[in-house]
Amino acid sequence: FQLLLRLYDRLSGQPSRQRLSPADTSQWVPGLSTNHLTGASGFTDAVTDDARLVQRVLEEAEADGAVCLNYMKAQAVLRNSETNAVTGVHLLDTSTEAQTLERIVNTPLVINATGAWAGQLKQTDSSDTRIRPLRGSHLVIPYSRLPVSCSVSLFHPEDRRPVFAFPWQGTTVLGTTDLDHTESLSHEPAINREELDYLLKISSSLFPSSAITERDVIATWAGVRPVVTQSPTLNQSKGTRKPSKENREHVIWSDNGLISVAGGKLTTFRLIAREVLERGQMPGFHLRSDALPVFASPPDLQRPDAISHQNWHRLQGFYGPALAEVLRAGTHETVGGTDTLWAELAWAAANTGVIHLDDLMLRRTRLGLVLPKGGKGLLPDIRCLCKPILGWDDTTWEREEARYLELWRSCYSLPATFPAKPGATG
Ligand SMILES: Cc1cc2nc3c(=O)[nH]c(=O)nc-3n(C[C@H](O)[C@H](O)[C@H](O)COP(=O)(O)OP(=O)(O)OC[C@H]3O[C@@H](n4cnc5c(N)ncnc54)[C@H](O)[C@@H]3O)c2cc1C
């Protein structure tokens, strides 16, 4: 591992490699089992909040003139019946239950960057590659129960896969799993009991003194990786690779005006986007130089006294040029002992295309993941602040609250303890 890190240091040009003694390791990771511990390797990596990363890309795009439409589903790619060239895309507004608003956009080029769903719009299937949706799930634990001061990567005792325990928004997260997601992609993914047991085993064998049980879990979440595979079936007994052995590289398919992309990592998002745009070059189209920074810098503001240094650092990265506006949107007190400011909540409600309460609680802020019971106890206060900003009436708020709590119960809490009743589906 030290050899690998030497190479990593050389490539990055910013040496960060360290060799930690067992005593140093215990200081960084209190509670880590010292059984057979000979030391640890330290290195520097990047950390992000994936939802804020996406929002910031959208905000920069809008500032450059893009039109971003939330909950607008691309239903089908339209083609000329003779030449098969792309002529447009059929859009359906799914933001309301009625789903009555449809639009056709005429265009000779469609870029299909729909992750694990990319196969649904990609009409011709190149027989050698396809998308293999692989689920990864996480457990959110109170920091006080599992205090790690840096991300810790360990090998899972069962299958020697690298797993992580990392500090996240004032909590500690354990993750992830890596398994075939065989459920329908039209439903929100959720952790299952085997994954819960697998993740709890990390703490029971590597942090035995913490004695973490499922009662400690504040919330869970799962995501689906759009991994591109060459395996013809998902039947592992017939020679299909194990999920964690699948390549994570991205693949781009080009088909007469439809460019589809899947795979890759968040770390390579800009590179992937540039490759896709180069494939789709249209007359008069110019790619911005990749020497320019991805994001505009935050303004040079004085840190308000009420905000800690660490939280200020997070806010600068989260909001960049919008930081001053965020700070003006509300109070700088934090919501329920989390890092999130009431001002962030108010700004997100007003400016980030929130359609449902779960957008606000789970993806614009992470309150639903870091507060007990999805933040149910704070919903009256959140209602007071956000209902007028969102322009919702009482009926809408109540409908949204019921929808959010049901979603939280079914996909962001512990999996059901008892097997489904005979005849039940889902
Ligand atoms: C558990 C887990 C852990 C990960 N860890 C890391 C990590 O540590 N480092 C790292 O770099 N990467 C990591 N990744 C990978 C990273 O999250 C993915 O590579 C990245 O999200 C892929 O981005 P994407 O835009 O291609 O797809 P997605 O993020 O899946 O986005 C696709 C979007 O398209 C939308 N969509 C789908 N169908 C349609 C349609 N018909 N019309 C309109 N919109 C549609 C979806 O709603 C979705 O918002 C992880 C992924 C998971 C699941």
Task: Summarize it.
The chain has helices at residues 2-12, 22-28, 50-63, 118-121, 193-206, 269-279, 309-319, 323-328, 342-351, 357-364, 367-370, 379-390, 394-411; strands at 18-20, 40-42, 72-79, 86-93, 102-106, 110-112, 130-142, 152-155, 162-168, 171-175, 179-180, 219-229, 251-255, 258-262. It is an alpha+beta fold and 426 residues long. α9 (342-351) runs parallel beside α12 (379-390).
What coarse outline follows from CA principal-axis ratios? globular
Ligands bound, unique: flavin-adenine dinucleotide
| Name of the CATH class of the domain at 110-283 | Alpha Beta
Structural class, judged by helices and strands?
alpha+beta
Distance between the termini: 43 Å
**Radius of gyration using CA atoms only:** 23 Å
Q: Which percent range describes the beta-strand content? A: 15-25%
CATH third-tier fold name of the domain at 110-283 = D-Amino Acid Oxidase, Chain A, domain 2
Counted by DSSP, the helix tally is 13
The parts where pLDDT drops under 50 for at least 5 residues are: 419-426
What is the CATH architecture term of the domain at 110-283?
A: 2-Layer Sandwich
SSE pattern, N- to C-terminal: HEHEHEEEEHEEEEEHEEEHHHHHHHH
* Helix amount: 25-40%
Mean pLDDT: 92
Biggest sheet layout: 6 strands, antiparallel
